[in-house]
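Would you mind writing out a protein's amino acid sequence and the numbers that encode its backbone to help me picture the idea?
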Amino acid sequence: MTKNETTEKKIFLLDFEKPLYELESRIEQIKELAQENSVDVSEQISQLDERANQLRREIFSNLTPSQRLQLARHPRRPSTLDYIQAITDEWFELHGDRGGYDDPALVGGVARFNGRPVVIIGHQKGRDTKDNVARNFGMAAPGGYRKAMRLMEHAHQFNQPILTFIDTPGAWAGVEAEKLGQGEAIAYNLREMFRLDVPIICTVIGEGGSGGALGIGVGDRLLMLEHSVYTVATPEACAAILWKDAKKSDKAAVALKITSKDLKELNIIDQIVPEPSRGAHADPIRAAANLKAAISENLEALSLLTPQQRRESRYQKFRNLGVFLEATA
């Protein structure tokens, strides 16, 4: 590992990763010293490697909801455009809502997935501050949701499956967005996605927040990457509302049940897509391969159903969300 790579890795290091990073740095230092002095330390290195593997398993198998949120927001986490480039054979981005606006926070276009024409839509965050400002931190405006609906209508007309990638803290909540009809744009998408004939597979690849996520989140299958989160509101916003203190976000993250494991147990999502041991950003190629395999499997199953069966199943899926039984005394 070069000095620049080490520095970059340290910059994006999360707090709970520090013990593992320190151990791995120590192993690298021992290897370098041993090579310089022609000393055989293979046995000691093997023991330290095993300790590092054990520590890695301990850390990433016991993450708290807040720690998973940190992974979901990691600046090096693969984005919608990263996954599109990795899993499709061809990709052609389409722009504009046909109403005078092209929202850079929500991208979409036509592609070939396993040789089959599909329409792909997803939130797009930036890599650095400048890029994030240009993409509005992945928070789509009304024009973004109208662009998404325009592309979904295209898919419906030409019988092309729809793949959506969800990664947003929420829809843009600015005054201008409200003036342009943010609530109406999202509500319209929610209604119209239920009537589409084609298979729809939605995947939360990072942060799925509030109505901003739901605006492209009505589908036959809802998948989540292992370390992604899906929530009605950010833990910080929830803590500020309930306890008047955003610093209690850790408590809110637990109460909100935002993790893929929690949501699978609640039958809100259909499948958890496994990530590399240190998160998707640690091995984007492997993460993309896992995602492609999951989408392929679900798309094949959905393609066996008739349009009417898909619409009915989609409707029942969402009607059953939140159903519960009250225990009597």
User: Anything to note?
Assistant: The mean pLDDT is 90.
